[in-house]
Design brief:
Helix content is 45%, strand content 29%.
Length: 153
């Protein structure tokens, strides 16, 4: 009878070891699958941010192309003239779009214009380059994208 009890206890002990090993294997597998899921989601978030910022800057280019020259060169222009004496460029906070759940994505937009040199004596041209610079954050990293449009008159 004593021999039978020892074999029964050994069987119980090995069962405990098998259950512990299978639980550890299951937890490891779950962590690997969770990490793979998070990596795939972060790639999608990067793609979403790039799409939002590219769309916003495409809108800026379209606005720069259709803006009348009278509005472009006025004192209240959306693209103020960048003098060489000025160091700072005016900036404004903009909403780039919204992600799932309705959370807005914010960025900072800087606009300015510079005068380009046109050295053609036969046809005098007024040439402006309109710059739009978008700054935004993804996590703790700051990114900058820019577009420039050349306008002739």
């Amino acid at each position: 009878m004593k021999l039978l009890n020892r074999q029964h206890l050994r069987a119980r002990g090995s069962l405990l070891i098998e259950v512990s090993a299978s639980l550890a294997l299951t937890a490891t597998l779950a962590l690997v699958i969770m990490r793979a899921s998070l990596l795939s989601i972060s790639g999608n978030q990067w793609t979403i941010m790039q799409t939002l910022t590219d769309a916003y800057l495409s809108r800026e280019s379209a606005l720069a192309n259709r803006l009348p020259f009278a509005d472009l060169t006025s004192a209240e222009s959306a693209w103020p003239d960048l003098n060489h004496d000025e160091i700072s460029v005016p900036e404004q906070s903009v909403t780039l779009g919204r992600i799932a759940g309705g959370q807005p994505i914010q960025g900072t937009l800087k606009r300015f214009r510079t005068s380009e040199v046109a050295s053609n004596a036969e046809a005098p041209l007024t040439v402006w380059r309109l710059h739009s610079i978008l700054c935004y954050n993804i996590g703790s990293q700051e990114y900058v994208k820019s577009r420039s449009t050349l306008r002739l008159q």
